[in-house]
């Protein structure tokens, strides 16, 4: 167990609260050798650190799901990492609802989810200028190239969630993003894009498969990057 948690290094510039929560989560995993349930508890405890770090960085106090989405949309956290964080959040919610028990996770899977929290906190503690200076156009191009090369989740072909057919939503957003990158969207395209963003906001929290969550979170981030280009400046 010592070797398994060796890579979980607490960022030295974290606040006392965040450091304490991360250290406790790491030790809970270490001691899951003696008590299996500690692995699941470690994930839920690590979310205290994540939520605190998100509130500090974003300067807003909102539910954890909204905080993760905001951090992803602004480029502070990669979409793939955000998907792992959301898996931890959903586990916590299911525990609260009594849908699963504290024996829900193996130590190996718990380490994956706790490591995602450690990585997210480290990203959030980086200098704001590192994220703010990134060129939004380049980021959209890189993100879209990554998404274009990712295969559509095979088991979700023909599946709809809350009346939204996933493969059609993917195709609609793909066409809009490509139009934006080539020539820019007209007013009609922007309106359709915002409708797609609303559908993505609705369906992403309801997806229960890890790869599919990551796929559609990345799609939503790309859509919001395009939409942000068409928000009128504040007068």
Describe the structure.
There is one protein chain. With 235 residues, the protein is mainly α. Helix content is 66%, strand content 2%. The chain has a two-stranded antiparallel ribbon with strand order 1-2. A hairpin with a 2-residue loop joins strand 1 and strand 2. The longest helix is centred in the N-terminal third of the chain and has 21 residues. The radius of gyration is 19 Å and the shape is globular.
Strand order of the largest sheet: 1-2
Largest sheet: 2 strands, antiparallel
**CA radius of gyration:** 19 Å
In whole angstroms, the N-to-C terminal distance is: 57 Å
Write the element-wise H/E pattern from the N-terminal end onward: HHHHHHHEEHHH
Strand content bin? under 5%
What percent of residues adopt helix (DSSP H or I)?
A: 55-70%
Count of discrete alpha- or pi-helical segments spanning 4 or more residues: 10
Named CATH topology of the largest domain: Four Helix Bundle (Hemerythrin (Met), subunit A)
Q: How many separate domains make up the residues?
A: 2
* CATH level 1 name of the largest domain: Mainly Alpha
Which structural class matches the secondary elements? mainly alpha
Task: Note the overall shape.
Answer: globular
Summarize model confidence as the mean pLDDT.
87
Supply the CATH architecture of the largest domain.
Up-down Bundle
């Amino acid at each position: 167990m010592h070797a398994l948690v060796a890579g979980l290094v607490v960022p030295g510039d974290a606040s006392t609260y965040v450091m304490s929560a991360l250290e406790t989560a790491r030790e809970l995993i270490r001691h899951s050798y003696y008590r299996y349930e500690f692995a699941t508890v470690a994930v839920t405890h690590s979310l205290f650190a994540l939520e605190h770090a998100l509130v500090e960085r974003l300067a807003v106090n909102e539910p954890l799901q909204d905080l993760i989405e905001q951090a992803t949309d602004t480029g502070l956290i990669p979409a793939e990492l955000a998907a792992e964080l959301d898996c931890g959040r959903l586990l916590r919610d299911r525990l609260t609802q009594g849908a699963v028990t504290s024996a829900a996770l193996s130590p190996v899977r718990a380490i994956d989810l706790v490591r995602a929290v450690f990585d997210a906190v480290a990203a959030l503690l980086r200098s704001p200028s590192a994220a703010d200076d990134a060129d939004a156009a380049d980021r959209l191009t890189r993100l879209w190239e990554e998404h274009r090369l990712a295969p559509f989740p095979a088991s979700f072909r023909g599946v709809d969630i809350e009346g939204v057919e996933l493969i059609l939503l993917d195709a609609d957003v793909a066409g809009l993003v490509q139009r934006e990158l080539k020539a820019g969207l007209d007013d009609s395209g922007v309106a359709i894009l915002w409708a797609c963003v609303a559908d993505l906001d609705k369906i992403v929290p309801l997806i229960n498969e890890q790869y599919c969550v990551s796929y559609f979170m990345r799609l939503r981030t790309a859509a919001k990057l395009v939409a942000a280009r068409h928000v009128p400046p504040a007068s």
